[in-house]
Amino acid sequence: MRRLAAVAVMFAVVALLAGCAGPGDRPVVTLTDQNGVVENRVVTVAYVNERMDSMPPMLLPGIGGDEGKLGFLDEIIRKELLVIGGYRISIDEDPRLKVAIEHFTKTKCESMLREELIVGPSAVTTEDVEEYYKVRDVFFQMREIVVNDEALAQEAYRRVTEGGEDFADVAREVSVASTASDGGRKQHTKTWQDFHPLIRVGIRDLEKDDISEPIEVGDSYYMFLVLSRKAPTEREPLEERHLAGITMEARAFRRDLTEFYVIESWMAEADITYNDEAVDLVGTRIDEKILELIPPSDEPMDSAAAIARARTQIVPDLTDEEGQMEFTRFRVGGREHIWTLGDYARILSESPGLETPKSGSRLYVTDSVIKRVFKMIKEYEIEKRGYLTSREMQDYLAERFEEGIVDLTYEAEVTLKTETPSGQEVRDYFRSHREDFVKPPAADVRQILVGTEAEANLILQRIREGEADFVEMVQKHSMDEWSKSRDGLIENIIQGEGRLAYIQEPAFSVDIGEISDPVRAPGGYALVEVLRRYPERQLEFSEVGESVVATIVGQRREDALLAFLDDVRATVDINIHEENLQYVSDPLDVYEEKEKQRITRVSG
User: Fold this and answer.
1) Which end of the chain has fewer CB atoms surrounding its CB within 10 Å, N or C?
2) pLDDT (mean) for 364-386
3) CB-CB neighbours of 411 under 10 Å
4) What is the CB neighbour count within 10 angstroms for residue 460?
5) Which domains does the chain have, with CATH numbers?
6) 393-403 pLDDT tens trace
7) Of 406, 391, 387, 350, whose CA–CA distance to 97 is shortest?
8) Mind spelling out the 3-state secondary structure of 66-123?
């Protein structure tokens, strides 16, 4: 019997003594391979409930009770049969699975590291969000001084503070910004949120005539003199319906800062130093190799040539003596690393062309070193935390492995075995199924979505009495940002579709050019103005040819899948443990809860 080392925990064989397991560990379905090729597959209560929770509402059964639970289990059983069938045809030995697992391992490790060091520490409280909102839209008019040397920045700061020199005069003398000729004056007023996150921190509490300390951003240092600081004249209070969006902004801002500080501390600890002679030498050798592999041309470079250039691997040619020169030193995890030029050339030879420098300038050479040191630091931090051997990682990779089995089995037994229909077959299908290719009636409307029925009625009265225009009221009052950005316009509402169900009735009953009475909508009440309607129309073959092909292919693939599953099912014993269905969530309850959450998000 093949041992399946990569099977997820939720599929583990359940102990015979059911009383020893919690409800989540109880089996709901057991699948036994009569041929003895694949170990028993056990679907637990926990797995079914987790899968149900992850499903979008439209994919859940529309009924509850045991009938709904069994309907949901049917889809899980189909997936299990695909896995069993895949193992039987040795899909688990497909080399693409190994590549995929390596990719998933890397991305999961980096995700876990980011969660621990950046996302988790960047949580915000209600008070944090309120403080962020207070300064978010404050307008700043500034003068700036920008220099590329820390000592020069500190000297400039001393001159405009302790020295009492005029900020504009110092800007004209030392600033490298385009604003220098105008005394550092920035032409446009900007809101606080428009600045770089690090600059935001430096100017947040500054008032008129205050000067910021030098702020390091990349390789430059910024100082600002505040000419004016003004709150917006019209700003809505931070209400519940804005809270979710502003919270996301505040959290993203804090994440940006946290990420910067983490990376800054890593690189400071790495303490990278270079042998300047070796940097100059390898830069010359890189430029020589570029001239050899990518000769200069007076012709403009098109996108294809630019891509080819970027993908060209650049590895400098070095003599044995040059290869032994010390190039750089740095520390990772407290351990010192020393690279010679030979080490550096070897690293470039093992790197994709995109990751090798395309210039021998010091900036490009040192940047390529920084990127590799940063990668080594991440790998060290991941190993130190034991992510690779953690239960979370093993469960995650097991799930991804089985998803790969399902996908590759479907490809081998369904996709690759499904023939594309001929042109004649497509035309014949269209002629015999013309009734399936009819475009239902549709309508274009505008909407205003507000919080209460009373507010909707007041707006409706003003519009009908000619005191206000519908679009004007959209911009002033509508809570739906998507339609508001389009003056309330929602085009091509198809009669009978589930999208924006509350609009269906007024869209197809109210006279064209008229406005509906308030209708209940998620989060409030809507006024709907009907702009135009489109009658039902028989579609021509030229309009739906590709759709017909997709329909035929879809049917053929479904037939091939069912045939494959039937073949596997015939040699598998499927046992549904009905006594444990009581622990499975009711799909109708899950659906209703998801809909309630969706409505809450919309109204928020």
Assistant:
1) N
2) 96
3) 14
4) 20
5) 138-234 (3.10.50.40), 444-538 (3.10.50.40)
6) 999 999 999 99
7) 406
8) HHHHHHHHHHHHHHHHHHHHHHHCCHHHCHHHHHHHHHHHHHHHHHHHHHHHHHHHHC
